[in-house]
Amino acid sequence: MDFEVAPLPYEKNALSPALSEHAVEVHYEKHHKGYMAKLKAAIGGTPQGQRSLEEIVQGASGTLLNNAAQVWNHTFFWESMKPGGGGAPSGRVAELFERDLGGYDGFREAFIDSGVKHFASGWVWLVVHRGMLRVVTTPNALSPIMTSTPPLLTADLWEHAYYIDYENRREAFLETFCDQLIDWDRVAARLEGVPTPGGEEFADTIVMNK
Ligand code: MN
Description:
Layout: H1 21-43, H2 53-59, H3 62-78, H4 91-101, H5 103-117, E1 122-129, E2 132-139, E3 151-156, H6 159-166, H7 170-181, H8 184-191
Antiparallel strand pairs: 1-2, 1-3
């Protein structure tokens, strides 16, 4: 891998006022690139550096895993949003929301509620688990790509993700994320090729220990 953070898919002020330019600047330049700097320092000259970011996330543990997963998760987060996004989706995503989550309203409630109730740092995700759309959270840096659970969408639950604009109001941040920011075209593209036959029920929170 080349140890370069992917460019943002929009200008840093493009999500304002949902997310301010200053908040995006600090989050992207300091936090996201900071994880990459730590990853590079940890593996720069070693054979691990020849692997893809996904391979490192799926094969590493400890400091290496934490920084690699944070780099991957942040790129996925930025690419989950667009200016003027949010609201109810259409097409296959909407159909699967009806089948699996009680429609868009059910998705929105589960996404916000799971994110608010998640203790401390982590991520809230829309994933495909056993062929069904599900909302899950992961602690700290952990990522669904460590499992056979394809992610479709994520919001960052670390305080640095929302404190500049929303102070301690994580719920308000997640409401704005759903109503004004989600890039449903990107979600639909991520869903392409992922089988969704439906299947077993499972707990709302994936617990991953590594
Ligand atoms: Mn973050």
